Hints:
By secondary structure, the chain is mainly beta. Among the domains are: about 1-90, Sandwich (Immunoglobulin-like), CATH 2.60.40.1120; about 110-405, no CATH class. Strand 42 (about 780-795) and strand 43 (about 795-810) form a beta hairpin. This is CarboxypepD_reg-like domain-containing protein. It comes from Flavobacterium fluvii. InterPro entries: CarboxyPept-like_regulatory (IPR008969), DUF5686 (IPR043741). Keywords: Signal.
Amino acid sequence: MKKFYLLLSLLVSFFSFAQIRGTITDNKGIPLSLVTILEENTYNGTSSNEHGNYELNIKKTGKHTIVFQYLGFKTQKITVSIDKFPFIQNIKLVEENLSLSEVVINSKDNPANAVIRQAIANKKENSEKTARFKADFYSRGIFKVKDLPKKILGQKIGDLDGAVDSTGTGIIYLSETVSKIIFEKPDNLKERIIASKISGDNKGFSYNTARSTIYDFYENTLDFNSKMISPIADNAFNYYKYKLEGTFQDDNNLMINKIKVIAKRDAEPVFEGYIYIVEDSWAIYAVDLDIKGYRMHQEYVDVMKIKQNFNYNKNNKIWAKNTQSLEFSAGIFGIKFNGKFSYVYSNYEFEKAFAKKTFTNEIVSFEDNSNKKDTTFWNKNRPIPLTLEESTDYVKKDSVHKVRNSKTYLDSIDKKNNKFKILSPITGYHWKNSSQKKSFNYDGLLNLSSLSFNTVQGWNLDSGFSFRDWAAEEEKGKSTSISTKFNYGFSDYRLRLTANYYHRFNNQNYATLTVSGGSKVNQFNPEEPITKFINSVSSLFFVDNYMKLYNKEFAGATYAQDLGNNFNLKGKLEYQQRKPLFNTTDHVFVKSDDIYSSNNPLLPDDNLTPAFEEHHLTKASVLARVNFGTKYISRPDGKLNIRNYDYPTLYFGYENAFASNENKYQFQLITSQIRYDFNAGNKGTLGINLKAGTFIHGENISFVDYKHFNGNRTHIGTTDRYLNVFNLLPYYSNSTNDSYFEAHLEHNDKGYIMNKIPLLNKLNSTLVLGFHALAVPETKPYTEVTVGLDNLGFGKLKVFRFDYVHSFQNGVQENGVVFGLKILNILE
């Protein structure tokens, strides 16, 4: 079988439709990858693959001058006379001889600094030359894995549809796109994808787009999770040292300066490597830079390499980027990853201005049948030849995909996996019809992952059934699921049942309908400020039963959909019957003189008085979400909204409680919220969350319907950011049935300050400053300030955070610490 794949790959290569092709090596015959090949004084170019093979599309016979450009080697021009295609042109490149003979070096004047200062002074002018253009774009991405285990957390991984071999090694992602783009700095983009190809998925659409490839070193910062400082940023000398390695002449007799870029401080968000600057114009000739993973706060990444090559056109005197590559190596838990993304820009058309309606909210679209282009199309339009490994992967995975998606194969796998075992009633059962895209799941009587403890139910666990139908999801985005959940409390001896129906209508406006009902225990605060896991530990080990519960029997429906790009509307109607609950157990793991507080949040020492009277009512609510400046990608398999973080997100809500057994429980509530992340470049991000609301006729409503605030008395944080929680506030101390205002601000310096502090910079952590305030009538405001360190951990596992908190209300000050355990998000 391997010989078959090899033969087929060679045949694919042999019948290539490229007009000029060949192999590029050095003097020793070693293949050179990422060599830039282009037709002189045009933007018709390509790049060589890992084996030095290239293909350049020349449409006419006759004389053509071809330029071969590669960093560290002399640029070569070859004039060829072509009378027929394909035309074979192999070439050997000679290493460049760098010269320092004309440079006078002294301790007071570093010649590299002079070049960088000129590059900074002229970058606005050079950037403007390529500020608006049309171009052809090609992208290819490959992602490989090594040492992938057979199981992760007890779950079988398998061979990922033929991607990995028995050693856990293989290509798990390979994809290509061909598109036409229109671009205007800084971020206006319009891309039309002509062809899209994913290895092993003949119906898939690649996510490789030009949107994710825009790395402009003329800008002060580049976004690689962190804001990385450009070597020619306005403040670059605060972060870098430079060394002039030498100069050389390019094929246009222009002198190129090779500058070594050296980090001043190891933990800063900086690059290392080389930047090449053209003398006199001070434009970028090329970049060859590395990013260490910890510098961009992606510890699992070892290193990322970015290379860019620019070519010069004598006709318009513009240096334009024609190739770019991103390579990375990464690893965690013994699993190693590496990948490479290659990009080619060609056939530029530079514009002085675009018509006003050129750019719309749609940034990416796909031509019809873009995922159905045949081999002939790809061999003719693919600028970088496939390597043997890539060709083999396409052939192998396409074959595997065809077999493993056949009804015969799917039915045989389902038959094996759907066997009912003797322990299935206890451990659970899963049934699936892969060809019809339906599944059924039973959680089992002993669903230990759901086991938790609270003082109302004691130990309790869940079981349930679920059914899902996603047959129309790929084409129209429709999917349907039906589920039931059984919850049994071993202390209150009560079984509670809920049922849920969910249907998504399409993948364009993502209209959804949810119908649900049943009986369950609810926290008084519907945002559930304390998790089941944290409450179980807090109760059993520390006798702190912070979770307060009531019983809710309900039936209701929710409908939501996008109304345009910027607006989402959700409506909900629900009947509720509420009953108070009491503690039924005093069970603890650790003996203590302390006793549990009551289940009444208002009277923690009173185990007899209920928190409210039993009652029922109906609630109708509407919530609107507005995201300004939202862009979107129009994919045949769905519309993807791209939030614009330059603008805040607004929420407006209205809730009306009516049809209650007593008029006093009826009320209206109007709410609003603003969420915004202010990006301060390399100085970090300021997160803002402001909330306000007011009750109408809420004087005598049930405590269930009060506005409750997300407090925390466990000293454990479970979220990445604390923008929706008060770190020391008692859970129900400030609950209100009147007006309220709360503010949460949190600034993460992304290492801007911490990277400059000796010893502490070894932690590679970030400094987090927070301010939280709450105002309700008839009591003094609650405020707290926080100072913390984020991105703490061991090795590549950075899942911890530590904050010192100082709070103040009614003349009472409190100090405390919060330990952030973000890994608990996974457990929950």
